[in-house]
Amino acid sequence: MFFTEQQQDFFRPLTSKYREQILECLQLLYRRLYTSQADYSQLLTREMVIECFQEAIARAPLLESQLDEEFNQPVRNQREQANWTLNILLEHAWLEKQVDEATLQSSYAFTRVGRLFTQPVIELNHGRFRTRHRNTRNTRNALKMFVEQGDVYDLLDAYEYSERIISDFTDVIGELEERKRMLIQEVESQQLIQKASDEFFDFMEKRFVPDLAIRLSVDSVEKYRDEIVATIASARRKRKEFKLAVEKELRKTAPELIDLESRSLLYSLLDKIEQRIHNASEIMLPALRKALLSFTRRADIIMRQLSFSYQGGGDQLMNNLRQLVPLTKQEFYKRMEATGAHLAELKVEFLDPAQIKLHASRTRKIIDTRVEASVEMDEVSRKEFYLQQVLEKAFTINNQQLSDYLISALAKGHQIALHQLPVNNARDLLMRCHAIEAASAGRQSSEYEFKIEPTFNRVADEYFIDSDEFTLELVRKN
Fold first, then answer.
1. Contact of 165 with 280, CB cutoff 8 Å
2. What does the pLDDT look like over 396-430, one tens digit per residue?
3. Deepest in the core among 24, 260, 345, 476, taking most CB within 10 A?
4. Residue 382 to residues 330, 387, 396: CA-CA distances in angstroms?
5. What letters, b where the CB count within 10 A reaches 16 and e where it falls short, cover 295-321?
6. Residue 402's CB: how many other CB atoms inside 10 A?
7. How far apart are CA 88 and CA 258, in angstroms?
8. In what order do the strands lie in the sheet with 415-417?
9. Sign (positive or negative) of CA dihedral 391, 393, 399, 401
10. Cβ-based burial of 407 (10 A; exposed 0-12, middle 13-18, buried ≥19)
11. How far is 20 from 23, CA to CA, in rounded Å?
């Protein structure tokens, strides 16, 4: 259990009105001990801790609280507050006191649990740089080292890196959603287009380019997935002696990872790594792209709206209200009466016809995509289908056929009347009926063309009772 002995009320120091000051003390002390500010040549004495806490208390705000308990008792000055903070953190197992048995000198440091809980706060508030986008490559490299050398610690490192891939995706997606909410809140509270755009571009330059852009391109899980899966497959194909030695070493090194005694721990770790890679590629990476698209789209919409609203030089309504503030009561009522009389007037205007446009409505095509089973046609249906094809083919005339028929009819002369065209069969009769279309049929030639002119006479023959007479002539193009 976690909440036992001194850790029973572990989080109690962070629930009072001094919680911001206590958290600031923990962060400053953490940087003194574990960052580049640390001085390992001397022990951290009580006086040094008190000075560190005094600096943190001076710049941390005091939060209001309605609880009346020991944590909310007033103190006189910053030094007494620092002493009280140190005692509280020692009592609740955030810090520990260490005594050198040789020199009997006391020093102070974080407990293991206190350091682990303070570290995420440091990374969250101060933007500590992390190469989170390298976990995919680290998984691949560790697996390759395991296959080549058979060191179980390389396999455990690959297992840990693969777990971080999923958690990193979750952190980035959560950060994008938080950034989007912060952008909306800033716009709603301040309506400052410059600040909103600056924060957006600052995020894109300092967060997107160094991490997200690499994660989506150079270090994309899609790029290394096949290579990692191939490496896992080669590990499964290792000799039986190799896998037996690795299994024994794994059970000795990491017994907490054993689920079932009858199941191989080696295969279990390899299966989990492969499953995490597939989940990161097929689920988390599309989710990250969707969250990034939503964030950039929302930022674009907000900045467009703000730009549009600021094109007129500011909010006209607020400017009008500011003009009413210095007026006296009589002037205010007079201004309001004049405005009311102006608004009460009936104003008739005509629309500009040039601004009215009627758009033709589009009818959507309905496409039937249902799959129907093919039905075998009976003899009657096949006969009808054959007759339909024959009739369509019999009455089909193209321009080339018509042109050839007319040229053969004009072989002995240059001009002929349409009712004098030869008719030897049914197709010739159809050609004669469509001869009026010869003007368009002859345009395909580059040298000659047909010229059709009416004679304004009426003629009759054995095919037509009465028809207009036209002359057909083959002439050279100009």
1. yes
2. 667 777 777 777 777 666 677 777 777 877 777 77
3. 24
4. 97, 9, 21
5. beebbeebbeebeeeeeeeeeeeeeee
6. 21
7. 40
8. 415-417, 467-476, 448-459
9. negative
10. middle
11. 5
Name residue 453's beta-bridge partners: 471
Domains and CATH numbers, the chain: 5-126 (1.10.10), 132-310 (no CATH), 385-476 (3.30.110)
Q: Phi and psi of 267, rounded to 5°?
A: -65, -35
Residues facing residue 415 across a β-bridge: 473
Segments of the chain scoring below 70 in pLDDT: 36-42, 61-76, 101-102, 125-133, 183-220, 303, 305-317, 345-347, 355, 359-361, 368-375, 394-397, 411-414, 438-447, 478
340 by Cβ neighbours in 10 Å (0-12 / 13-18 / 19+) ranks as exposed
Backbone dihedral region of 228: left (phi > 0), alpha (psi from -120 to 50 degrees) or beta? alpha
Beta strand residue intervals within 392-437, DSSP E: 415-417
- Return the exposure string of 174-189: e unless at least 16 CB atoms fall within 10 Å of the residue's CB, then b: ebbeebbeebeeebee
Q: How far apart are CA 399 and CA 419, in angstroms?
A: 20
Computed on alpha carbons and rounded to an integer, the radius of gyration of the chain in Å comes to 45
Q: Could you tell me the CA-to-CA distances from 340 to 255, 334, 335, 345 in Å, in that order?
A: 84, 10, 9, 9
Q: Which two tokens stand for residue 29?
A: 């002390």
Residue 180 has a pLDDT of: 75
Angle between helices 221-236 and 135-149 (to 10 degrees): 20
